[in-house]
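Q: What does the assembled structure look like for these inputs?
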Amino acid sequence: MMRFNLRIVCTASLVLALALFPVILEGQSFYIGVLSRAMILSIAALSLNLILGYGNMISFGHAAYIGIGAYTVGIFAYYEIYDGFIQWPVGLAVSAAVALIFGAISLRTKGVYFIMITLALTQMLYFLGVSVDEYGADDGLVIDIRSEFGGYVDLENRVTLYYTIFVILLATIAGMHRLINSRFGMVIRGSRSNEARMRALGYPVDRYKLTAFVIAGVICGLAGLLLGNYTNFVNPDMMHWTRSGELIFMVVLGGMGSVFGPVFGAIAFLLLEEFLSDLTVHWQIIFGPFLILVVLFARGGIDSLLGRGGRGHD
Amino acid sequence: MTEPLLRVTDLTKAFGGLIAIDHLSLDIAAGEIHAVIGPNGAGKTTFIAQLSGALRSDSGTIRFDGVDITNFPIARRARHGLARSFQITSIFRDFSVEDNVALAIQAHAGHSFRFWRAARSDPALRRPAREALERIGLVERRNVLAGALAHGEQRQLELAMALATKPSLLLLDEPAAGMGATETSAMVTLLAGLKGDVAILLVEHDMDTVFALADRISVLVGGRAMATGTPAQIRDDPAVRQAYLGEEA
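A:
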């Protein structure tokens, strides 16, 4: 009971802290920026967790959808179309379409092959970004004006942008919680537990996995739309395979297969990155072993340190 | 004459040069318990795999419930009413016992593209799950993780899951494998209670179980059915005695 409460306390304090930071840190735009980025990557990590943690689909190409979202904002801005009511639906639709194609191809394989194919497909997008000179190639595009929502929400204001991200993050967490516990969620988790059994019970498992893959892609595309807006900038690096790797780190660090885990993971990842890179430019020398220790000794990630009871994967 | 529930005609499966199932034909009537026995390597497990859809057949047809299911994938066969248990226990180990059965029920309660309502508090899934567990005698253990059950209980759970899908034919591959004497006799009682409700194709090594349960028995040798008949006929068949039962007597 004590440990159960610890998790609720930590989760609630984190949410409360995120809600209050702009008020407390008024003027300290640097930290507001770090946390904005952390929340955006939390959304991306939450989406990856749906397929990685609950569905056991180890996608090593999830950054593709961040790139798609960010490039949507960038390319529209390049043509001086700033209307978010156009940009965002298009960004989400393209994410869904790409996830559908990538998923349909990669879900034909399993295990290491699945990892390699998702990696390869995303690298194709990366090289596409690098090679299209019109959209800045290696250098990417500057997003001079953020998405406009007809005067309702002004994303040019850092604090407004912060709270927009915050609200979308909360909605994503709540939606993920519903999804994971719905009939659909049970099918995805059942497939992770014993796929052969699911088929024998009569589930067309592949269709459900593909649907989960697309949902994850769309949510991550949303994170990409936010990231493009936040950074005012997009380049192919956002889709580089190391970015996909970082998203996996966040999920593993936070705790696979727990709804809130990826949020802990993403925030811890970014804070560690900031803190360690202040100490030394070779911060990854410290970060790498740290991650290994987490995998070895706290297999459920940060979430498991807060106590997860005997049920597992809930 | 009406068509039997399952009609297998000239089914063949070869692995390279080895012919595992050799032009096998076999009928199963609705509600009957039909045992398939035979020495190791006779093709029993291959046959089950072909029926469930896990293995493609080289030739021959499988008609089930009036439909040619020869080319149906596993999941589609299951939705048509063909359930199976595995020779090696296959359950969702990290799910609770009740979750296991609820998943089986959900598989046959329409599609699962339902993204919002909580499945664990859905009475349409939980109530029949509870009933299935009561029938099988596991209701007390419903909140235990399936992986933590004793071996015999896991076999019971597997059967509960198969039954929860309300199949018309149940493929049981050695349901009593690895069970102790008490557990086995409980399983036999359970299966006997199903007689008439659901047809069962039973692959089993233990002859006492087979003769206690089966309405008809087919003897599989070298991928062919060398004899099919009632337990009494099979027991008295001289060729069977020589080829198979004789080894045990």
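The domain at 1-81+167-249 of chain B is CATH 3.40.50.300 (Rossmann fold).
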